[in-house]
Amino acid sequence: MKRGFIGWDTQQLPRAALEARLEELQRNIAGLGVQVLVAFSDVWRSNDVRYLSNYMPYWNRALTVIPSGETPILLCALSPRVYPWIRSVTLHETILPSPQLIAQLVRLCAERGWTRVGVLDHEGLPYELYRQLAAEKLEIVDVPRHLVRPKATEAEVAMHRHAARLARGVLEREVTGEALGLTDHELTGRLERALRRAGAEDLFVLVSGGYTPPLPACGTVLGAHSSVTLALEYCGHWVKLSRNVAGMTSPLPPGRGATVHLETLSRASGWEGIAEDDHEAGAVISLQVEIPADGKRLYYGDTCVREGGGLGVL
Amino acid sequence: MLNPIRKQQYLQLMAERGWDLLLFYGDGWRKDLFRCLINVNFSGPQAVALLSRSGQIRALVTDPWDVEPVGAAIEDEPMLSLRLAEGLRAVLAAEARAIVAVNGLEQMEARFVRAVQEIAGAVPVSATADVEEIRRVKTAEEIEWIRRAAQLADRGYEHFVKVCEPGMTEFELVAEVESFVKAHGAEDNFMLVASGGTEVTGMKPPTARRFQPGDSVTTELTPQVNGYYAQICRTLVIGEPSAAQLQAYSIFAAAQQAAQTYLRPGVDISDVARVQNDVFRARGYGDYTGPQYTRVRGHNLGLYPDELPHVLENVHYICKQDMVLIAHPNTYLPLSGYMVFGDTLLVTAEGCVPLNDTPRKLFHS
Predict the structure, then answer these.
(1) Which of A246-255, B162-171, B188-197 shows the lowest per-residue confidence on average (mean pLDDT)?
(2) Mutate to test the interface with A, among B148, B182, B184, B207 (most CBs of A within 10 A)
(3) Per-residue pLDDT reduced to its tens digit, A162-203
(4) Which pLDDT score is estimated for B174?
(5) A67 CB near a chain B CB, below 8 Å?
(6) What's the pLDDT score for residue A272?
(7) What is the CATH number of domain A15-148?
């Protein structure tokens, strides 16, 4: 679950910016002839809805219902006791208790006379919901994810940059020679403390001792060939960085023999995060490099933005 | 990392149901659906384990960094496919017309179900409820992991009490506790908090609210060790507790004790909820045991922190030895606002035993 600080800083993300995204969405789907758009989110697949309404499900599933020209409606399996908090961090004013998401959606469609419904990434729905929806008398139109988030905006890139700087700063302080001799659990604890106190929403720390790829901590003592990979979410924007504890790696680009692993962190790229074919300018890309050294493996990586013919570190 | 007892149970289930192939689908939210056969904390977006009737285990992973740990667990190279649908088609290529069941079918993206259907010729069957029933009774090794998680929950709560102070924000407190449990071996942690007085009706992720004297600070702290979660629920008052807070606490403590005294093999889980609610009813607070004020009176624990069945008066399930659950009568009361209290309980032959040993009291800073 998300247990970091989930807030809404309207200086960073003004209400008008969210409203502009909704207006752009309506323009993008106008040709589909749908009366309403429905977007699924859960604790793991949250970023499309976050982009539109700032709703971040810390737990459970939800459907965000977006009628044209109206504030999005949230169908939510969480208790009404948390609705005041949800309203404080999102655009949502109307939240409908929905232990059965599809049943509630069908009721709402009937009330509003909606019969042709756009579903964001229809085949990406959990099968349980997909099957329930298929049994209803609604005309479902698939809405590809790229129509919701066509490309990373400058504001989004700026948020990724902020997150990258935050992560880089903590890594520079904590992942140094002074960490040698700590266990990977202890270093993970230090990173958790520093980054969550700085406002991280979510955080994953992986550690390689030089003999394996980066993996969750297992109690190993850190040595010179140990590397740390950090995936950090800040206000819905992910970054990923890797550093060797002893500073044995060089900054990008990689040298010969290195293996490069790319992931797209911005916009709609499929949950797989595959980036090999993502050449669009402005795409935010995780670039992690495995570097062979002394029969072991070192890791270095950062979060980049695609610009012109290459990648620039954010 | 491979659970051999579960493997045999799943093979028996497959024989009973006539399934040729049982898939275990895990994703970023529900890794437990994969880990209940191959207990590897994978990093990629999805992972699938495939168990054949012959007992052969294969795996499909979607992140290059998962190949080695999953391969080590099954002693065979898993298939790597960055696109799961393509991977499913490839790994199932020789399974035409096989009867395929999926643990986690309900959570699986529809496109992945279609990929299985295209190869097998039929929509796969859901194995989720059957596998869940098998998982509900823990093995000796699983109980040992949950016991360690409970011990870590105790130490984590001790740290919570130590660092919580007026002026600190909720998210700073969570950062401190998260850091502590991770530094001491937790791989994950489910944690909700709330703070304040009678205006607080429930828990949520941490906010920037600063603790003030008189606040009740509530938490569900749920560290995960080697995949297995244990939970503790306690309430701490900033400063000296008021008479109303102490009165409220006495109700919660009596309700939890009622559940612990009642729980044993053969009892209906609805009655584990009822005996808790009866304590509130007897004190005139029965109105606060319903869904307007509370979610559940407890739940099972294991590879997922909120396993079924939930402890509710309208849920019927006969409890079994070696189930692990938490009884927590957490709810809102006008005396104190939202309050929590609960321990992880192991169902034994004669009754149940708590796995937490944190003092049972209303803490204060």
Answers:
(1) A246-255
(2) B182
(3) 999 999 999 999 999 999 999 999 999 999 999 999 999 999
(4) 97
(5) no
(6) 53
(7) 3.40.350.10
Question: How near does any CA of chain B get to the CA of A288, in Å?
Answer: 11
Distance from CA of A308 to the nearest CA of B (A): 26
Closest CB from B68, B105, B180 relative to A213: B68
Which residues in chain B are closer than 8 Å to A58, comparing Cβ atoms?
204-205
Contact with chain B for residue A211, Cβ under 8 A:
no
- In this predicted structure, the answer to whether residue A204 has a pLDDT above a threshold of 80 is yes
Q: How many Å lie between the alpha carbon of B179 and the closest alpha carbon of chain A?
A: 4
b (16+ CB within 10 A) / e for B72-109: ebbeeebbbbbebbebbbebbeebeebbbbbbbbbbbb
User: Does A5 sit within 8 Å of B207, measured CB to CB?
Assistant: yes
- E strand or H helix at B91: helix B84-91
User: What rounded mean pLDDT belongs to chain B?
Assistant: 97
Beta bridge partner(s), residue B324: B346
Residues contacting A44, CB < 8 A, separation 6+: B27, B28, B29
Residue A167, both tokens? 């992560």
With 0.80 as the threshold, say if the pTM is over it. Answer: yes
pLDDT digits (tens, 9 = 90+) for B208-223: 999 999 999 999 999 9
Angle (deg, nearest 10), helices A154-174 and A184-197: 140
Structure tokens at B298: 């407890």
The pLDDT assigned to A270 comes to 47
Domain boundaries, chain A: 15-148, 154-313
- The fold for domain A154-313 equals Creatine Amidinohydrolase (3.90.230)
The whole-number pLDDT of residue A250 equals: 64
Instruction: Report CB contact under 8 Å: B191, A3.
Output: yes
Of B29, B172, B294, which to mutate for an interface test with A (greatest number of A Cβ within 10 Å)?
A: B29
Whether A15-148 and A154-313 share one fold: the answer is: no
Nearest alpha-carbon partner for B195 in B223, B218, B171, B178: B218
Q: Which of A125, A189, A261 sits opposite B110 (nearest CB)?
A: A125
| Of A53-62, A144-153, B140-149, the least confident | A144-153
Task: Give the chain A residue whose CA is nearest to the CA of B221.
Answer: A3
CA A46, CA A201: separation in Å to the nearest integer? Answer: 12
